[in-house]
Design a protein that fits this description.
Layout: E1 2-4, H1 8-16, E2 26-28, E3 46-47, H2 51-55, E4 59-62, H3 68-74, E5 84-87, E6 93-95
């Protein structure tokens, strides 16, 4: 599993749920300032979005859930290998 976005609200959700790098291999974010760093608390590494194509995760959890439509459109190629998007809020759902 990977995460998309290193937004504060998503990071707060991960920390509240006790999620760590043992649960999510990495997060990706378009902001180069965040790349090469770690999400606070969970210590999940932040990589550039291109890493999604290389790693081909089964699931990508969208942390800035208010941008779900934009993110799934920009990264529709995740579905090419059978990957799914997970939207955690307001109710957890998997988008095939």
């Amino acid at each position: 599993m990977a995460a998309y976005g290193a937004a504060a609200k998503g990071n707060t959700l991960l920390n509240a749920c006790g999620v760590t790098a043992a649960d999510i291999a990495f997060a990706v974010d378009r902001n180069p300032v965040k790349q090469g760093r770690f999400l606070p608390g969970s210590h999940i590494p932040i990589r550039p979005p291109e890493v999604l194509r290389e790693a081909r995760p089964d699931y990508v959890i969208i942390l800035p859930w208010n941008l779900t439509a934009e993110i799934t459109a920009q990264h529709a190629y995740v579905r090419d290998w059978g990957g799914c998007f997970v939207v955690p809020v307001p109710e957890a759902r998997v988008l095939p």
